[in-house]
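Review session, final week

We close the course with one last complete record, chosen because it touches almost every idea we covered. It is ABC transporter substrate-binding protein, a protein from Tepidiforma bonchosmolovskayae with 585 residues. Go through it on your own first, then we will talk.
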Amino acid sequence: MNDRMTFESPWQRRLTRRRLLGATGAAAALAAAACSRGGGGQPTPFSPTAEPSASPTRAPSPSPTTLSSRHGHTLRHTGFVERDAFADPHKTQAGPLLGHQAMVFSRLLTYQDQARGTIAADLAAALPERPDATTLVFRINPQARWHDLPPLNGRPVTADDVKFSIERQRSGDTTFVRAPQWAAIDSIEVTSPQTITFKLKAPLAAAHHLFADVASFIVAPELAPDGRDIPLDAQVGSGPFLWVEWSDQRFASVRRNPAWFGGDRRPYLEGISLVQPRTTAEVESGLRTRALDVAIVSRTLADHLKRGLPQLVEYTIGHSMFFSVRYSLVNHPYNDQRFRNALTWALDRREMVRKFFDGSGGLSPWISWPVTRWTLPESELTTVPGYRPGDGGREADLRDARAALEAFRSEKQLPADPLPLFVVDATENAIGLGSLIRDQLKAALDLDIRIVPMPLSQLVGLLLSAEAPFAAGPDTGWIDLDDWVYPYFHSAGTRNSFPLRDSDLDALIEKQRVELNEDARRNLGYEIQRRILALNPGANLVSERVVALAWPYVKGYPLDTTDGYQDRFASCWIDASDPTFRGRA
């Protein structure tokens, strides 16, 4: 962090914190550590009031000869224009890029609401037919066509395109980091140009999720001939918008696809312009002059802006990304349950919410609190050590943490040197995550901690080799229960870098995978989280509540718990008849 930022106001400093969590390419950090092995209250999420895609099926798009009053104008909003080394939608792990690609590339299915897990048809004409528990038959919407751009030039989307998109990820190339998601598929058969059948190896509760997740963007073979990656200048899809530009850390934009198959002559917007501001002064100026229609801001900045611009409409939703700590269960002293308990219970999560998010956030079990479909209820979580509310709860947490540490010390000794805490350097520079953990553990347990900041790539390597026994940083968030638990906590999980081996937990995780009853599966998810909280191999500490401020003329602005929902911008529109539209730049 440069010297100038040190003297800026709290809401200006907040921009750096937002960038840290917004740039998911870095925030995937600990979450994706083992890919190369082979494998607070709860808010109601904002949903667009006019969401034509909310139906499981979509009507064919009518002739676009007559456009309604909803059509026209380019939406201008803030966000992150950050990516990793890959532009290929099947390889990148950068959330902002995946969000931009979600407007360009279609999937067979899509999420109406990630927090609640509701899924609708996208490229598919309807939800898949299920002749038995292991078979899914998709019929492609006959109106679906690729963008009228070379090399595809508006040709129809076919079942062969779908098969290609999934098979290329299963090719054995380890840079396809989401390949393990497709391990459940036994065979793929194209039975007609518009029909494709997937056979699963076993019943899978998350079967629909496979085809709605960002791993399932459908791409054309022409974009990746001879096994090559899809570059940034070849982002041609079949979604509601056409790719226009992407300038790292500056801006990105898309324009309307007039031939989109989504129905109701959507998208309504002529285009979308995304700007990554350098300071929050730019955000405030942009909103005041209406050069920006919407801005994602901190709680502090939102309150400041609303005092001067009371017309602004606020939308909020919890974001499933989170800050976490991880322990290596094969290293002393972290291989002792009592020591892990002491550390985990002593951490003051509510101070983290105040410090990192200006109080706009919440405490999480392993599944972040915004994922309302699966997260352990707050009423239960607040009875768990480390999560108990109020001064009395904090005192009880400290008593339990000190008792656990004393029990450990009655049989074992700590190393004489301070314990190293490995932290992603960007995280430490931006918000001092490691320093706060160090100070909290010193005050609560009189433990000496030494901060070891390092680049993400280096930390990932140390995690894989068990040379970073105590680590902290940002983690990405997920949608389906299986994504939260199987890769990380099952003994065979491809991202289980703790590594955790617990037969009782394995049995619960395996059972939820095949449980097709929603309520029963949710209860299994609760049992899994209780077991993880009991074992404490690590901790999902806190997640943020995102705030968006919009001028009232913006209608149907979407938000969701993680990137990949941006195809829903097809239903967003600008009401030029709204009084606040007058004077828009």
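Two points worth writing down before the exam:
The CA atoms of residues 12 and 189 lie 54 Å apart.
The chain has 18 helices and 19 strands.
Good luck, everyone.
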